[in-house]
Amino acid sequence: MADLVVVSNRGPLSFRLEDGEPVPAGTAGGLAGTLNRLLAGTDATWVAAAMGEADRRAAAAGMMQMEGLRIVVLDPGDDIYRMAYDVVSNATLWFCHHHLFDLPRRPRTDRRWREAWDAYRAYNRQFADTVAREAAPGAPVLVQDYHLSLVGGMLAADRPDLRTVHFSHTPFADPNMLRCLPDDAAGELCPVWPGHPVTAHWGVPDPARATGSDIERLAVFWQAFRMLETRVKLFASLPFDKLQRAALTRRVEEIGRVGVTGTEGSAA
Phi and psi for 143 in degrees, rounded to 5? Predict the structure, then answer.
């Protein structure tokens, strides 16, 4: 069983079809590409969804492998994935978290949206069930972004021993903004934080805003990467079973002030 589990919509590897056969399309970009470098060689388990037929065939052929990293690929099916990803995650939650809805007109929570929400719930349930099977007792589980907003609550009910944390890579909507969604959906998205006993802001300079030469901009990306690497390692090493809520909150907030070297605002 896995001592560390990472959960994300997109995995660290991607494939494309050539003459009907899957061939590597390189390391996935964005969040997956960044976490890939952070987790390489840790023997962690990474749970992610197949992005299409090429990924499904690659997984079936045993090609979803990286040294020092176990990859578990889920296949929710094209219909569930598209409804969950396109209608709920990207067309609803992204706009909701960024407060960009034209509220008199959107969101439109009609029958199709309800079907999409059922698909989103089923998508999150498939991830939660897989993590519950894969994770060792007390393992840290790092859930990534708004595509998987329901996984934490599901794991809190199914595996309360796990140390689950949810990383939002966008702003998180003001609870009042969630009122534009149906009550049951809003309640699932923003309950009394089951499975997430404390919250903290871990700010990192935005590498995408870096200017200067290629070397200077690369240095900013490496700085952000090293900050996240240090903080995740500190978080995973916390003695969760020995910390009361107030102490845990303080330690998690201190980790958010740790710089590249790990000496600024030490969480020790």
Answer: -95, 135
